[in-house]
Amino acid sequence: MGLPRVIAKLSNLKSVSSSTFDEDRNTNWHSYDSWLEKHPSALDKFQKMMHGAENKKIVVFLDYDGTLSPIVNDPDVAFMTDKMRAVVHEVGCCFPTSIITGRSREKVYDFVQLDNIYYAGSHGMDIMAPLQPLRVRDWKYHAKAVDLKGNKLVIYQPANKYLSEINQIQMSLKEKTAAIDGVKIEDNKFCMSVHFRNVSDEDLSSLEEEVKSVLEEHPHFRLTRGKKVLEIRPPIDWDKGHALEYLLDSLGLGSSNDVLPIYIGDDTSDEDAFELIHRKRQGYSIIVTSIPRETWASYSLYDTTEVMLFLEYLTKWKSISPAS
Ligand SMILES: O=P(O)(O)OC[C@H]1O[C@H](O[C@H]2O[C@H](CO)[C@@H](O)[C@H](O)[C@H]2O)[C@H](O)[C@@H](O)[C@@H]1O
User: Fold this and answer.
1) Over pLDDT 90: what percentage of the chain?
2) ipTM of this predicted complex?
3) CATH number reported for the structural domain that contains residue 119 in this entry
4) What is its EC number (predicted)?
């Protein structure tokens, strides 16, 4: 058991939970222990996992909020530590690595500031990936790009045609929720977040009403939930699982049997990627959580500190593994 979990366990021994899936509730350790049997710690199982990774090509996928940076009240200051940045940089040197986030691609790049990894923003609806010259792509929604080092890249934005409607929805939401204290509407380019972490309980139902009334004008748009956030997404069949597949494909690893994706994430939108890994029976899915949760993920990590430790283990394993 990792140190953060031991410390938390000691200081929460008597806590009893009231609502099972509220991220802010105290931990019920009786159920966490039994939950861990189904979703064991990726730190505890590291040796076993790497045994299964021998002779395979590891590809790393990371969510941002709650995975690389701790959850904080103000989304604009959800910075990752320099230590975490250095570790992710090292991971990017060892394995093809991508960040797949609900944030806009530009915003997550501002937070992460690494040039040796790939980025998919807007829950995967805005991907910057390597250009595969040999592959004939459907060029719809694609644009070519070049990075600072002159590498040829491709940008894939499958929800492009909804951009103006997304902006309209955002404007209406801002107008309609302006009177509610603590609401924050975040522009994630191809989707948007309505944050209610700082909204008082009494105002939650009126916020919900306002959001619903805006969406009545755009009934085809999707409403999903994350941690103290409502997410509004365009009506396309595309999520973090599709983004994972797209990135593997762009890396030339889409149809390879010896590829082993490792996906680490903490929120409901990461379940699409976990579910894909589960369905394909290929790769490791790791949920970051300090509370028991329904999940498709096979393994777990307690918090961002354990994520950093796991990533460090991975890079150390790479440096001593015979294949490298
Ligand atoms: O896919 P992710 O990278 O996990 O993005 C999901 C949402 O993350 C952010 O919100 C969450 O983190 C904030 C900062 O810690 C926190 O204040 C908020 O309550 C959380 O829901 C981001 O701001 C959202 O736009 C993303 O949809």
Assistant:
1) 79
2) 0.98
3) 3.40.50.1000
4) 3.1.3.12
